[in-house]
């Protein structure tokens, strides 16, 4: 099953419209969707290494735009939509903690958490709810999201063939590590 999913992602990453799919996933992940854009970004960069920086910039920009939607959900629609998303992730305690951290550390908290595997949507909604200045939010999001995706791009730039070889030979191990990272990011809300 994992092998067929990997093959499907490889095929999708080679399509002409792959960049649109990746952009949609990246946008949605920053505001409400649970799937990280890495599942499209990595195979696309491995499939077409000469377009690595183009794909990375598009992914980061789409994430930034999605983050602005998350901010708006927290700022304007928290009671109707934002709370529903927080409840869906069962992150009420983390949301409260994030509000306190925004009050204490402001933009630095957004930058530091924005490069981690913690779902960015929870940060964007909290920033909107906490009424973090929009300009500050956008600037911090630029730093956080571009840093996060550029770290992946740099690794792929220097180690792309090795990464592809590891993925293809040790697919189960790679899937397990990715699952641990995603679940760890979600569980970190319980303990933050």
From TrEMBL:
Which superkingdom heads the taxonomic lineage of this protein's source? Bacteria
The yes or no answer to whether the keyword Nuclease is present is no
Pfam families cross-referenced by the UniProt entry = VTT_dom
Membrane-spanning intervals of the chain:
54-78, 171-189
VTT domain segment(s): 60-154
Tell me which UniProt keywords the record has, alphabetically: Membrane, Transmembrane, Transmembrane helix
Name of this protein? Cytochrome B
Source organism per entry reads Azospirillum palustre
């Amino acid at each position: 099953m994992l092998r067929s999913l990997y093959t499907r992602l490889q095929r999708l990453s080679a399509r002409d419209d792959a960049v649109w799919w990746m952009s949609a996933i990246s946008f949605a992940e920053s505001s409400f969707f649970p799937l990280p854009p890495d599942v499209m970004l990595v195979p696309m960069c491995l499939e077409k290494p000469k377009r690595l920086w183009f794909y990375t910039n598009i992914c980061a920009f789409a994430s930034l735009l999605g983050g602005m939607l998350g901010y708006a959900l927290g700022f304007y629609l928290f009671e109707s939509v934002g709370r529903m998303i927080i409840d869906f992730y069962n992150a009420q305690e983390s949301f409260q903690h994030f509000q306190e951290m925004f009050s204490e550390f402001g933009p630095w908290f957004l930058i530091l958490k924005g490069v981690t595997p913690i779902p960015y949507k929870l940060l964007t909604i909290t920033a909107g709810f906490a009424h973090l200045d929009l300009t500050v939010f956008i600037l911090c999001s630029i730093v956080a999201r571009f840093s996060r995706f550029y770290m992946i791009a740099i690794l792929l730039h220097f180690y792309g063939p090795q990464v592809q070889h590891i993925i293809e030979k040790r697919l189960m191990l790679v899937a397990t590590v990715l699952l641990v990272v995603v679940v760890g990011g979600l569980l970190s809300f319980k303990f933050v």
